[in-house]
Amino acid sequence: MAFTTANTVEEFRRNLDDVQRRIDAAAMRAGRDPQSIRLQPVSKTVSEERIRNAIAAGCTRLGENKVQEAKWKHAALLDTGVEWSIIGHLQRNKAKDVVAFASEFHALDSLRLAEALDRRLQAAGRSLDVYVQVNTSGEESKYGIDPDDLPELLMSLRGLDSLNVRGLMTLAIFTDDQEAVRRCFQILRRLRDEMRDLDPELVGLGELSMGMSGDFETAIEEGADVVRVGQSIFGARPTPDSDYWPTAAH
């Protein structure tokens, strides 16, 4: 898939409009309200100057995989008022950094990490919206909780008052097999529905954070409420996905 690189405010507006048109079309195909789907722009590897133009074009919340990268961007762009979502794997010793500036965390995958975040949040007197990451592809190397362990983790999160569970998140398998990708999204939707049947409060709003530049239309067709889109807005990245979506094997 070819991605058009944006540098100017006008170029960012064009890319954002194009992505929004694709979101709307996918929602209409699925009989869904396009307004119910949130676009989460992802600015990893993008320079401060280009991010400022993206913000001027309408980006009000940006997503980053690496906490250290997000940390310096937050400091550099403090004057813009942009909000930050951390969407990549987090080590427990970086919990304090997320608590310091993030509005959302999309990759909660263990109780120990949840407890570390909760301690920091309690000390800071604030709360954090989180999505529980589930490994729907069955790849042993990929981060995310095993679907069978999801009920226990969600029940344990009830005791952590500073974490607001909004729903579930997944990364589809990296493959050209679109049906295999679609199955990952279907699994997450099924898990959300099963958790609601078990106890509606377990998954909060029950939102599904799934779909990236290469597959967000399929994700919307399968129920995505939040799509995390980077390259379709900013352009092709100079580094491979493996640099920004580390596996458990790493």
TrEMBL record:
Taxonomic lineage: Bacteria, Bacillati, Actinomycetota, Actinomycetes, Actinomycetales
N6-(pyridoxal phosphate)lysine modification, residue list: K44
Cofactors (names): pyridoxal 5'-phosphate
Domain Alanine racemase N-terminal, chain residue ranges per copy: 40-238
Transmembrane segments: none
GO molecular function, one term: pyridoxal phosphate binding
Superkingdom to which the source organism belongs: Bacteria
SUPFAM superfamilies recorded: PLP-binding barrel (SSF51419)
Record protein name field: Pyridoxal phosphate homeostasis protein
NCBIfam families: YggS family pyridoxal phosphate-dependent enzyme (TIGR00044)
The family this protein is said to belong to: Belongs to the pyridoxal phosphate-binding protein YggS/PROSC family.
One Pfam family per UniProt: Ala_racemase_N
Keywords: Pyridoxal phosphate
Source species of the chain: Flaviflexus salsibiostraticola
UniProt signal peptide: none
